[in-house]
Amino acid sequence: MQIGTETYGNMSNNLFSETSPNMADHNKTTAKLHVVVPHGHSVTLNPKVLCSATGTMDPGHLGITKVDVDHVSAVKNGAPAQLEHPVGVVISTGAGEMLPTEHRVCYASDTQARAGAKAKMVHAVFTTGANEFQKVSMPLTVNSEKTELERQKATARLERWQNADPSKVFGKDGLPKDGVTRVEHPTSDEVVHLVNVESDAPFSKFVKANMGSRTFMGGSYQKADTVPVEGVPHVKMTDDHIKEAARALKEHLTPTGTFSDGLKLSMPCMEGKPDKGTNMHVAITLHRDPMGCVEAGGQAAFTSTANDAAAAPLASKLQALAFDDVGKST
């Protein structure tokens, strides 16, 4: 089960404003979460939930250093429930990898041993009928150098490409959806892409900003001339270069880090089967190392633009613009 964000009344995370600078970090050191998980199952909080809770705008700025499991309870039909068997608490990345914490619990029992079942590794164990759940604090094993690199990349994304979602910028083929026109040679297999350097599409901005660099595609476009398509300047790029540039931008736009895919909270049965209708209520505190108030000063790179093909020129005209040997009199 995936959980996203929803705003109630006038509440928000105060991160987005059309008239003032956006803040990348509100200097919050902790974030409280209350998660309801069906007994024996799991819930995944997507990155937007984590960013909203921590006052950040990019998963690379989360900076989570410790997770506390403050309280666990079982509820059925609106009343406290008595569970026949213990329940584990496992916190993982959104991709399902158990968090590398300094605290873990190995659960084993005589019942498991007689059944030939293996011991189970979890972060905490909840048992009804026992004493009140004891808070569990779990410092994360963090690579500080890797974390700092992720923060730098996140800051760059906010400054240059705010709101640019890779899934909206690129299609399933990995190529940009907007700002680029693919042109096939009429008599050969050659393909050329015409990139609209005046478009608001993120890929167009990326090409325009980098084409004058010697390190961009080996300097192939430092002195490139533009061709007019319906009066709008376009740059001709080869099929190999468009794919390489798209991979580079997609990598830059894609958050990395421990929680780039979200946080998964699982409540596995240590023994027995899930009790349908019973929900586990889990209170969690995320501790983080904030960056302080950092302004994301770049303009938003819009992921949807006016249809470049609204007044699409004829294919023959595009071919003549893209290929030197097409449509030229001899």
Describe it for me?
With 330 residues, the chain is an alpha+beta fold. It folds into 2 domains: 172 residues, Sandwich (Jelly Rolls), CATH 2.60.120; 84 residues, no CATH class. Helix content is 21%, strand content 28%. The chain has 7 helices and 18 strands. The strands form 5 sheets. A 5-stranded mixed β-sheet has the order 1-4-16-7-10. Strands 3, 5, 6, 11 and 17 form a 5-stranded antiparallel β-sheet that branches. The protein has a 4-stranded antiparallel β-sheet with strand order 12-13-15-14, with helices on both faces. A hairpin with a 2-residue loop joins β14 and β15. The radius of gyration is 26 Å and the shape is elongated.
Backbone CA Rg? 26 Å
Report the helical percentage.
Answer: 10-25%
| Average pLDDT, all residues | 82
CATH architecture of the largest domain: Sandwich
User: What is the fold-level CATH name, i.e. the topology of the largest domain?
Assistant: Jelly Rolls
Strand order of the largest sheet: 1-4-16-7-10
Give the helices and strands as they follow along the chain: EEEEHEEEEHEEEHHEEHEEHEEEH
Number of domains: 2
Tell me the distance between the termini: 65 Å
Largest sheet: 5 strands, mixed
How many helical stretches? Answer: 7
What's the total number of strands? 18
The structural class is: alpha+beta
What proportion strand? 25-35%
Text of the CATH class of the largest domain: Mainly Beta
| Low-confidence runs of at least 5 consecutive residues | 5-23, 294-312
Shape: elongated
Indicate the topology.
Layout (H helix, E strand, L loop, with lengths): L1 E2 L18 E2 L6 E9 L3 E4 L1 H8 L9 E13 L2 E2 L6 E7 L11 E3 L2 H6 L4 E3 L1 E3 L9 E4 L4 H18 L4 H4 L10 E5 L6 E6 L5 H9 L15 E4 L2 E7 H15 L9 E4 L11 E11 L6 E2 L18 H8 L8
Parallel strand pairs: 1-4
Antiparallel strand pairs: 2-18, 3-17, 4-16, 5-6, 5-11, 5-17, 7-10, 7-16, 8-9, 12-13, 13-15, 14-15
